Amino acid sequence: MTETASGSVARGGKRPRKGLKMKRIFTNPGVHPYDEIQWERRDVVMTNWRDGSVNFEQRGVEFPEFWSVNAANIVTTKYFRGAVGTPQREWSLKQLIDRVVGVYTRTGIEHGYFASEEDAEIFDHELKHALAHQVFAFNSPVWFNVGTQSPQQVSACFILSVDDQMESILEWYKEEGVIFKGGSGSGVNLSRIRSSKELLSSGGTASGPVSFMRGADASAGTIKSGGATRRAAKMVVLDVDHPDIEEFIETKAREEDKVRALRDAGFDMDLGGKDIVSVQYQNANNSVRVSDEFMRAVEKGGDFGLRARLTGEVIEKVDARDLFRKMGKAAWECADPGLQYDDTINDWHTTPETGRITASNPCSEYVHLDNSSCNLASINLLKFLKDDNSFNVADFVKLTELIITAMDISISFADFPTEKIGETTRAYRQLGIGYANLGALLMATGHAYDSDGGRAVAGAITSLMTGVSYRRSAELAGVVGPYDGYARNAEPHKRVMRKHAAANDDLRTIGSMDAKIHTEATRQWAECLKLGEKNGYRNAQASLLAPTGTIGLMMDCDTTGIEPDLALVKFKKLVGGGSMQIVNQTIPRALKQLGYQQEQIEAIVEHIAEHSHVVDAPGLRREHYEVFDCAMGERAIAPMGHVRMMAATQPFLSGAISKTVNLPESATIDDIEQVYMEGWRLGLKALAVYRDNCKVGQPLSAGNGSKKEEPQAEPEVKVVEVNRPTRRRMPNQRPSMTTRFTVGGAKGYMTASSYPDDGLGEVFLKMSKQGSTLAGVMDAFSVAISIGLQYGVPLETYMSKFVNMRFEPAGMTDDPDIRMATSVMDYIFRRLALDHLPYEERAALGIFSAAERAAQQRGEDPAALQEPVDREALAQSAPIEEEKPKAEQPVAELTLESHQRFTADAPLCMTCGTKMRPAGSCYVCEGCGSTSGCS
Q1: Can you say how many angstroms the Cα of residue 749 is from the centroid of all Cα atoms in its chain?
Q2: Which UniProt keywords apply (predicted)?
């Protein structure tokens, strides 16, 4: 895409350097990229999940007609700047892109990046075209800040440092707070802090790093509660040879035990509950830095030394396998700690003469120097899949050049949260180019995610991306100079470049698609080494694989980062509200690629729409099932399939990979140990695991809570004579209340009758015409529940069985107290609880009215809202309403999980209340775009 030409003047009046001669990729001379797009106006209206009120409204916003409703909503609510309702408010995607790209282009001109004004214009137009067409996206801080009156922060990932001094520890608290306040996350290694087994200079015993983690966690939790964008995201790392390593490993698992005990005692331990704040260490991801020495000791069996922080002497020896077992057990119980493989990370380190890599950002993809930052951008891989199912290698190369150029320019104008971070980042210019939609690309081209062919494609694309990035970095070094720290790190940097090139040579191709990509990657690495030897490099780091949460939604990506497809069906938002179920559009394309005829494709797609999986789909050959395997569902990809995919791409990345390896609830501690061990053997830099349902406080989990691994002793069996229960029949006249409800578009009526002296005794449900199967089933269910209540079965017992039950219809309701329901049964028993159980009992089950949730948000005691229930008054105030003709309602909001009959353990979005979904090591809300980590 570019050449170099002399004519630009370097900074500081130094000798003239060559500027970049830009060439066009997507645009045409004399035509502005916006003029080739069909634009349309839309209305964006967002409602409050607590009470259904409108909490955001902007009408007449302008987007390309091919942008989805969801992408336009997220950009409007998150990225448009200016007060809503004022003339200063942005209302068009054109304004947003112009605001950002204008700063990049002007800075590039000022710092001598371009050979001429024409080249600057080409850069400007190509960048605008790529962003408007969702070909790539910068990370969220760019959209938040660039071109505004705010500090021009462009980085989403930060690494801090802390020394064994109280002043340094307090400075760490302050720096984290500043970063969290800005909506970003940071990581830190606490291994320099003396352990609780060592002495202070005064003669007393040191507190140890875990004690200081408590203060930092409380600070992060406080800032999280007051933040408007997302929760505080942080990573805490401790080296495996630290004397307090066992305490660090077990810290969060012990807190899970506390949650269980408090929950069983009746405290409100649900997510967002008033008592959950007593749980500590929940605002950070914890990782252990393991060395090759330790992992070899685990393999062979033997002792491993824990070393004093100041002297380095071994002060205690532990059994390596026993310590490794404790890591696996803690991760089995609560998903922490993850592992970071220290020797592997530092073997691929480009600037070791400056310092070691000790920590990472919260999602583990950015690993570099202390007190540094990284700005991210991700490419939408599916945009390069041509109609003939070949990969557009030439355009991919040109776009990668364009992005790296823009990302490097951004460091020249960027602001940073601390002076130390700014100094390090400007001196080493770390970049983090990555991609999204890999899973969709593989499926569309007929490649199974967990296959040699799929891994070959992923490896080749990653190698090409990083090879082009460093080749462009070497070209930029020839134009505006290498990074400031390059001279002292030239030899190790070039050594790492040769390691990348050697890994590319070892890549074995399987098919024609990956072979063509690999051929170009080989050429790019050869050119990279040649130019790097001559010019040096502009950037100490170039690539990594981030979660791509919010920006993945902005680009309408089906899959995030390196992840496979989450499921085969999804729900598409409609203009005007509501959503509709659709089968992923990559599936018909994949079936066509695999050789199926149109009639067969239609039958298979219809089967998937009905069953959400491909098993027994008519005409689909069993050997093709694996192409449609997903992260969850009927045919979930095995944990080692995720590890092997990470291993296929890791040798071609400057940084690491944000990804959590999910394991089923039935997984054992041995399974987790195997994943951790194989991650080390396969050369990964970092690895995190999550066993389904292991978190007690996790809302809407797939099971009823995890149990401890250790078998319990059989209790002594005693025969106790129990009186036979008797039925307490309802009187002929009793107070009752009828509720009309809608769940996922399905309407129904519930009549609940009580004994005159209080207490629910009868429930009748109507949801269909008399004589229908559904009506019969609901009648039978009503009789069974009613008889059980009259025989003394507590309502709480039914609650525990039916709340969170999942089947269709599901989704949005018309009840302001219960905005979302996973099924009709889930709604009915939540409504019964609100009407017939006292606050204390409901709070233990995590069921609150809209008024109670609002009181919690205001910091008030919801119990103060409670008044004795007058059931006769309720009955009189809620007569059965007659059906009235009305305009057709929009399709109700649906959730993927309600259709799939499974759920991913993930938090509720604190902004809009929607269940989030996994995105790398983080979570993203598909409703509003909020994330729990890097964007």
Answers
A1: 39
A2: Cobalamin, Cobalt, Disulfide bond, DNA synthesis, Nucleotide-binding, Oxidoreductase
